[in-house]
Design brief:
566 residues, mainly beta, Immunoglobulin-like, 5 domains, five-stranded mixed β-sheet, elongated
Length: 566
């Protein structure tokens, strides 16, 4: 009998131990550290340093020790401001959170868009076992800083009159019209020869370490004028090379015309006029041009205007025919003719002409040349021809569309619903950083719903959790909004309405009392795990009941044995 009781108590103890261990395995999964506010998408400015507050929380069942947060490798233009890319927290007990502040910097050259910054969290439990988790935070970068763009604002000679055999200072005023600094600026002057102009110091390049945004600088060349220089106008070429803060190279080349040159007179005064007519050539240059709209989109019309100038100080140009053409067939004439006629253009006079162009819809993003050809005559009927090329930047056609929105179906006020939809890229270029939200009678459950990039001609499918706004009931209308960036980094949005039925207030349906109501927050047959102290009470209760039953059985056995002895 004693052996039986000992066995029974051993079984009870083992049952209690197994129950406790099982409950511990279910409920004690170790520490788990997460970012509580990782769904937020703060907006930051390119070129700025900023501090961002994170809330880390231990959602596990054990204390987390030696928490270290580090950055993972990323192509995002956002970096830790400090040299050591880590942050340490000594201890975080279960259920508690802590606010930490990290400092970041955004590159000046960052494009507009949403960027992900992956972070790694490493920590241990109280016994030293290691744990690791990965989290991604998102930042929306807004860049209103234009990249460096250096223009040659003006070219002046000192003295103004250029005389054969003399010297002249050629002064370039260059202007960085962009916001960002231009670095390692180099200006190269070419077109020099022994019968025209030569640089006095024999060096045809000039350097600047930096040209700040919105600033200008004067660069001077001291030129020797040849004894044999021809009268009239001479052309030199100025080439600009420079780099932005991201070490991207830029180049620009312009032709500089120096007019009114007084050449060596080697004929009689009576023949001067004839000599000038033979040696001086009237030239036409494009002094300015403009595209409206400035962002030329493939398949969309653009009004292209250009201003041309007669550089001669003495000769009138007559019977000018101007023909505008697209070198590689990208631009088509939208209306009218691509040719113009000008009867007369006086010395130093300018005229402007405009033409409507439409780039092909499948044009890829880059600059395409437009040629402007001039055929004209001087006062004596001598024919001349010149051609100028203008590069027009074209941006690929982007068109993101929404189709087949399903849901939300009947939901209750304050509960979660969802919508599903298809989206198509019907444009000719990749659309980037596609994200979704809703407006109107519904709001998104999560503040940030990132979809990603979508290639031209491709489609995708997405589910979005939504919640009815407070006070909405009955048939409600929401607006699905997709935002995306084109190849220039410009942000566009596309919208589409959807409807759903919301039960709220008196509109909430009644149920039979015999039927259980399971709302959106329930998990069906799944039950919330019991806390450790509840399990301990249950085990002690079972042990107490078993002990009482054992005592009763023992008493009955003793009474029966006493009766048998009597």
């Amino acid at each position: 009998m004693k052996k039986f009781l000992a066995s029974l108590l051993l079984v009870v103890c083992l049952f209690s131990f197994i129950t406790v261990v099982h409950a511990d395995d279910d409920d004690r999964g170790g520490p788990k550290v997460i970012f509580e506010n990782k769904s937020e998408v703060p907006e930051v400015d390119a070129g700025d340093s900023f501090k961002y507050k994170f809330v880390i929380k231990n959602t596990g069942d054990e204390t987390a020790k030696n928490i270290t947060i580090t950055t993972e490798d990323s192509e995002a233009p956002i970096r830790w401001e400090t040299a050591i890319s880590s942050f340490n927290v000594n201890r975080l007990t279960p259920g508690f959170n802590r606010e930490i502040e990290l400092a970041f910097t955004v590159k000046e050259t960052a494009d507009n868009g949403i960027y992900s910054v992956p972070l790694k969290i490493e920590y241990t439990n109280m016994s030293g076992s290691p744990y690791t988790s990965a989290q991604t935070v998102y930042f929306k970068v807004k860049n209103e800083l234009s990249k460096p763009l250096i223009n040659i604002e003006s070219v002046r000679t000192l003295p103004e009159n250029i005389v054969a055999g003399g010297r002249v200072s050629l002064n370039f005023v260059i202007h960085n019209v962009g916001d960002l600094n231009a670095r390692r600026v180099k200006l190269t002057l070419s077109g020099l020869d022994k019968d025209g102009f030569m640089v006095a110091d024999s060096i045809n390049t000039r350097y600047l370490d930096k040209l700040s945004g919105k600033s200008q600088q004067t660069i001077t060349y001291d030129l020797l004028v040849s004894e044999d220089i021809k009268k009239g106008t001479a052309a030199l070429t100025a080439k600009l090379e420079y780099y932005d803060p991201d070490n991207k190279e830029y180049t620009d080349e312009k032709t500089i015309y120096l007019s009114g040159i007084q050449g060596k007179e080697d004929k009689k005064e009576d023949d001067d006029d004839d000599d000038d007519e033979k040696k001086s050539t009237p030239k036409i240059i494009i002094s300015s041009y403009n595209a409206n709209p400035s962002a030329v989109v493939a398949g969309k019309r653009v009004n292209f205007s250009f201003t041309f100038r007669n550089t001669s100080t003495t000769k009138t140009i007559k019977n000018m025919k101007i023909v505008v053409s697209s070198d590689d067939g990208v631009f088509n004439i939208e209306a009218g003719s691509n040719s113009f006629y000008v009867a007369e253009l006086l010395p130093q006079q300018e005229m402007t002409r405009m033409i409507g162009l439409r780039p092909n819809q499948d044009t890829l993003s880059r600059a395409y040349p437009v040629s402007i050809n001039f055929d004209y005559e001087d006062g004596k009927g001598n024919p001349y021809t010149s051609t100028e090329k203008i590069n027009i930047q074209v941006v690929e056609y982007s068109n993101l569309t929404i189709n087949n929105i399903s849901g939300p179906y009947e939901i209750y006020e304050g509960a979660n619903g969802s919508i599903s939809f298809e989206y198509y890229n019907m444009g000719k270029a990749v659309v980037s950083n596609v994200s979704a939200t809703v407006e109107g009678a519904f709001k998104p459950k999560s503040d940030f719903n990132y979809i990603g990039n979508l290639e031209a001609g491709k489609s995708g499918y997405f589910d979005l959790d939504v919640v009815p706004r407070t006070g909405e009931s009955g048939e409600c209308t929401g607006i699905l909004v997709l935002s995306y960036e084109d190849s220039r980094g410009e942000v566009h949005t596309v919208r589409k309405d959807f409807t759903g039925y919301v039960y709220g207030g008196e509109d909430t349906p009644s149920f039979n009392n015999d039927e259980p109501i399971i709302d959106d927050f329930s998990m069906g047959d799944e039950k919330e795990p019991l806390a450790w102290w509840k399990i301990l009470l249950i085990v002690l209760g079972i042990a107490f009941v078993v002990a009482i039953i054992t005592i009763i059985i023992v008493k009955k056995i003793r009474l029966k044995k006493m009766e048998e002895e009597l």
